[in-house]
Write a structure and sequence with these properties.
Layout lengths: L6 H13 L3 E3 L22 H15 L4 E5 L8 H10 L3 E6 L18 H21 L3 E5 L3 E2 L7 H17 L6 E5 L9 E2 L4 H11 L3 E6 L9 H10 L3 E6 L16 H13 L10 E4 L8 H20 L3 H9 L3 H12 L4 H10 L6 H8 L1 H8 L11
Parallel strand pairs: 1-2, 2-3, 3-4, 4-6, 6-8, 8-9, 9-10
Antiparallel strand pairs: 5-7
Bound molecules: alpha-D-psicofuranose and manganese (II) ion (2 copies).
One manganese (II) ion (MN) binds next to loops.
Amino acid sequence: MTTTTSAAGTAAARDALRAQTIELPSWAFGNSGTRFKVFGSPGTPRDPFEKIADAAQVNAFTGIAPRVSLHIPWDLVDDYEALARHAADHGVSIGMINSNLFQDDDYKLGSLTHPDAVVRKKAVDHHLQCVDVMRATGSKELKLWLPDGTNYPGQDSIRARQDRLADSLAEIYAALDDDHQLVLEYKFFEPAFYSMDIPDWGTSLLHCLALGDRAKVVLDTGHHAPGTNIEFIVAQLVRQRRLGAFDFNSRFYADDDLMAGAADPFQLFRIMHEIVQADVLRPDSGVNFMLDQCHNIEAKIPGQIRSVMNVQEATAKALLVDAAALDAAQRAGDVLGANGVLMDAYNTDVRPLLADLRVEQGLDPNPMQAYAASGYAAKIEAERVGGAQAGWGA
Ligand code: PSV
Ligand code: MN
Ligand code: MN
């Protein structure tokens, strides 16, 4: 069975694509690498202001990346209101504020779960500092990823660590303003190798449920065991209205942080199909579609542009699924027919549609080419010397 999307369906897809937004991570614009080597690259931003200027280029050429997520203290500045004004001057705004609990010697045995109350207080206080950054920048979301866990059976009490975590999170949640949201990320291993304190979506969800309505789960696509059905998790969290954000990236092996849609574009499509079916693509749905990537060997701005386009293409394909035909096939128990409806949409070349939408918005139809021709890369290479190793330093 072959289906085609109706004219009305295509018009609705175009409307949804016009409204779609993707948030960029500030750290994607700095140098990063593996524990073996960080390769420097000319033109790398020297401070958070330059990272935002680079992120604004991605928005300028794609038209759908209007927010930049900050990581504290990687993006430490004296004046956050000035940073927010700088973002606005560049046509973007500050998105989520990410705390950092993984680069301080005091956190060797944990941060929010540490056995010592003094260390736990330090970790909680860091989030109060992040809430101040939210107030100064207008950000509404505090994002936590916890590196805490243990390496050896018996090293610490699994139960006690969960109790301490619940208490620490409750303190942080209580410090939020009424229009703030807390989003809590999970990861199945690394840096801890025996037990992570938030290894999976279920643990994250349980803590969010205990905190309150403004606590939601972050799904980083690279944070699952190989073979995990991520779209199932998406469907389940959306049902509970507890999907707060995505950290999109690709993985071949573990937390590879490669460009979204590069390794498994079909998985990205399946995820976006769940999003579209549940009608949570809308910007007011409460789900923040963000990238969490590092560009270790490729150029960073075009790396982000490509990633945004990959998410956009997966979204367009998901929007082109013939929902009525799919529903009919599913109800009829037509296994191959239902699968065929999905595959027809996935196999559609949506690039002409997206190019057309860009032209309609006054953008170049080919963002990669347009950026390459813009001269921006040569300009920043000439202007900036001594770029920061973003993510792991200033
Ligand atoms: C951890 O692996 C993570 O996915 C978290 O989101 C961090 O904040 C981010 O990576 C930064 O590298
Ligand atoms: Mn992440
Ligand atoms: Mn990660």
